[in-house]
Amino acid sequence: MSVRAVLFDAGNTLLFLDYGRLAAGVTPVAGMRLTAAGLAAAAGPAAREVEGGAASERERAARYLDALFRLAGVARERLRDVAAALRRLHHERHLWSGVAPRTVEALRRLRAAGLRLGVVSNSDGGVEEALTAAGLRSSFDVVVDSASAGVEKPDPRIFRVALAALGVAPAEALYIGDIYDVDVAGARAAGLRAALVGPSGSHAPDDVTVAPSVAELIELLVRRGELSLDPVGTRDSSR
Ligand SMILES: [Mg+2]
């Protein structure tokens, strides 16, 4: 059965921290000069450190930022001031409003092929706002935020909320995320196919297709025949 809908995780898949802005905004209170490259290098290890656990999404988001700046070299006693600086920056513009190169073009290609697109995110109720701030909201037919859905990944029910809104069966949907245990495991439990964006997925088992960015992953899936960008309706139905 061919793919009719592609659903995406938000954080570290579609949306990224704007590392340059964070480095500039936080350096005055960090006790060291932060760089965009230094923060980007700490992103994967920080994500792995806060993966799982029973914390709420808001607590996890705060722990992620703590881990990110600590792993980038900031002393623990500075982290409270770092958090305050981040709150000020977030108030000016959503912290997670960075978009990887060619993401917009990749989403446009999927839509041009007639695919339905959605977002399924473990978030604090703010994912719509973050997508809007990043200029991506209009690319999606449905956005499901765990805070509104009352259930979060890897629980398969959150994927079904999005599929029901789109009128698409699980076997006709592909989910793209960045954390194997949450995104791939959850999507598969709901009956979807799944693929991973690195680098935080780079330690994933080899039963899943992985690429460094959404744009590269879409290209790889198309090359491998796991995704067709022929317009819906013109496809070979045996696929
Ligand atoms: Mg993510």
Task: Give a brief description.
With 239 residues, this protein is α/β, with parallel strands linked by helices. 45% of the residues lie in helices and 11% in strands.
Q: How many distinct helices?
A: 10
- Shape summary: globular
Strand content: 5-15%
Gross CATH architecture of the largest domain: 3-Layer(aba) Sandwich
Amino- and carboxy-terminal Cα gap:
6 Å
Mean pLDDT: 91
Cross-sheet strand order for the largest sheet? 3-2-1-4-5-6
Number of domains: 2
What kind of oligomer do you see? single chain
Judged by helices, strands and strand pairing, the structural class is alpha/beta
CATH homology superfamily name of the largest domain: HAD superfamily/HAD-like
Largest sheet: 6 strands, parallel
Labels describing this entry:
alpha/beta, 6 strands, Rossmann fold, globular, 10 helices, 2 domains, 6-stranded parallel sheet, binds magnesium ion, single chain, 239 residues
Model description:
This protein has 239 residues and is of the alpha/beta class. It folds into two domains: 136 residues, Rossmann fold, CATH 3.40.50; 74 residues. 45% of the residues lie in helices and 11% in strands. The chain contains ten helices and six strands; from the N terminus they run βαααααβαβααβαββα. Strands 3-2-1-4-5-6 form a six-stranded parallel sheet, sandwiched between helices. Helix 1 packs across helix 2, helix 1 crosses helix 4 and helix 2 crosses helix 3. The longest helix has 15 residues. It is globular, with a radius of gyration of 18 Å. The site of magnesium ion has 7 residues, from loops.
